[in-house]
Amino acid sequence: MALPKYKDIIDLIKKGSTLEAQEKILELRESAIELQEDNLSLREEVNKLKAIISKTESLSFENGIYWLEKNKQKEGPFCPTCYDNSSKEIRLHSVVDNPFGNWECKVCSGYFE
Hints:
Distance between the termini: 59 Å
Shape: rod-shaped
Low-confidence stretches: none
Mean pLDDT: 87
Order of helices and strands: HHEEEHEEE
Protein backbone atom coordinates (compact mmCIF):
# COMPACT_ATOMS: atom_id res chain seq x y z
CA MET A 1 0.00 0.00 0.00
CA ALA A 2 1.40 3.37 -1.02
CA LEU A 3 1.46 5.96 1.73
CA PRO A 4 -0.43 9.19 1.14
CA LYS A 5 1.89 12.13 0.62
CA TYR A 6 1.85 15.14 2.90
CA LYS A 7 1.54 17.46 -0.11
CA ASP A 8 -1.53 15.57 -1.37
CA ILE A 9 -3.24 15.95 2.02
CA ILE A 10 -2.49 19.70 2.05
CA ASP A 11 -3.88 20.02 -1.49
CA LEU A 12 -7.09 18.21 -0.43
CA ILE A 13 -7.50 20.57 2.53
CA LYS A 14 -6.95 23.62 0.30
CA LYS A 15 -9.63 22.33 -2.10
CA GLY A 16 -12.03 21.91 0.80
CA SER A 17 -12.04 18.11 0.60
CA THR A 18 -11.59 17.72 4.32
CA LEU A 19 -13.30 14.32 4.48
CA GLU A 20 -10.86 12.91 1.91
CA ALA A 21 -7.96 14.55 3.75
CA GLN A 22 -9.10 12.98 7.02
CA GLU A 23 -9.23 9.56 5.32
CA LYS A 24 -5.66 10.06 4.08
CA ILE A 25 -4.54 11.09 7.58
CA LEU A 26 -6.16 7.93 9.00
CA GLU A 27 -4.29 5.86 6.39
CA LEU A 28 -1.06 7.50 7.53
CA ARG A 29 -1.84 6.73 11.19
CA GLU A 30 -2.62 3.09 10.39
CA SER A 31 0.59 2.79 8.42
CA ALA A 32 2.55 4.37 11.26
CA ILE A 33 1.10 1.86 13.74
CA GLU A 34 1.94 -1.04 11.40
CA LEU A 35 5.48 0.26 11.03
CA GLN A 36 5.85 0.58 14.81
CA GLU A 37 4.64 -3.00 15.28
CA ASP A 38 7.02 -4.26 12.57
CA ASN A 39 9.86 -2.29 14.14
CA LEU A 40 9.15 -3.76 17.58
CA SER A 41 8.99 -7.28 16.16
CA LEU A 42 12.27 -6.82 14.31
CA ARG A 43 13.96 -5.39 17.42
CA GLU A 44 12.82 -8.42 19.44
CA GLU A 45 14.17 -10.75 16.76
CA VAL A 46 17.50 -8.90 16.68
CA ASN A 47 17.76 -9.14 20.48
CA LYS A 48 17.07 -12.89 20.36
CA LEU A 49 19.73 -13.35 17.68
CA LYS A 50 22.22 -11.26 19.67
CA ALA A 51 21.58 -13.45 22.71
CA ILE A 52 22.16 -16.59 20.65
CA ILE A 53 25.39 -15.19 19.22
CA SER A 54 26.56 -14.09 22.65
CA LYS A 55 25.84 -17.50 24.13
CA THR A 56 27.52 -19.28 21.23
CA GLU A 57 30.62 -17.13 21.64
CA SER A 58 30.82 -17.99 25.33
CA LEU A 59 30.20 -21.71 24.77
CA SER A 60 33.18 -24.02 24.35
CA PHE A 61 33.34 -27.68 23.40
CA GLU A 62 36.02 -29.54 25.33
CA ASN A 63 36.56 -33.29 25.52
CA GLY A 64 33.14 -34.03 24.06
CA ILE A 65 31.05 -31.79 26.34
CA TYR A 66 30.01 -28.14 26.39
CA TRP A 67 31.10 -25.54 28.94
CA LEU A 68 29.75 -22.03 29.31
CA GLU A 69 32.05 -19.21 30.35
CA LYS A 70 30.41 -16.51 32.46
CA ASN A 71 32.34 -13.80 34.24
CA LYS A 72 35.58 -15.63 33.39
CA GLN A 73 34.40 -18.78 35.17
CA LYS A 74 33.34 -22.07 33.62
CA GLU A 75 29.81 -23.28 34.17
CA GLY A 76 28.59 -26.72 33.27
CA PRO A 77 29.22 -29.14 31.81
CA PHE A 78 26.26 -29.30 29.45
CA CYS A 79 24.98 -32.20 27.37
CA PRO A 80 26.26 -32.06 23.78
CA THR A 81 23.40 -34.20 22.48
CA CYS A 82 20.67 -31.98 23.93
CA TYR A 83 22.45 -28.78 22.89
CA ASP A 84 23.22 -29.93 19.35
CA ASN A 85 19.70 -31.29 18.78
CA SER A 86 17.57 -28.59 20.40
CA SER A 87 19.91 -25.81 21.64
CA LYS A 88 18.95 -26.62 25.24
CA GLU A 89 21.56 -26.24 27.93
CA ILE A 90 21.00 -29.36 29.99
CA ARG A 91 23.44 -29.65 32.86
CA LEU A 92 25.25 -32.99 33.14
CA HIS A 93 25.39 -34.83 36.46
CA SER A 94 28.53 -36.40 37.82
CA VAL A 95 28.46 -40.17 38.20
CA VAL A 96 31.00 -42.28 40.09
CA ASP A 97 32.31 -45.72 39.08
CA ASN A 98 30.23 -45.85 35.91
CA PRO A 99 31.69 -47.84 32.97
CA PHE A 100 29.79 -45.64 30.48
CA GLY A 101 31.24 -42.25 31.47
CA ASN A 102 31.81 -39.65 34.17
CA TRP A 103 28.81 -37.50 33.29
CA GLU A 104 25.17 -38.39 32.76
CA CYS A 105 22.36 -36.43 31.12
CA LYS A 106 19.07 -36.90 32.96
CA VAL A 107 17.12 -35.79 29.88
CA CYS A 108 18.52 -37.91 27.04
CA SER A 109 20.21 -40.53 29.29
CA GLY A 110 23.54 -40.01 27.54
CA TYR A 111 26.87 -40.75 29.24
CA PHE A 112 30.02 -38.75 28.59
CA GLU A 113 33.64 -38.87 29.72
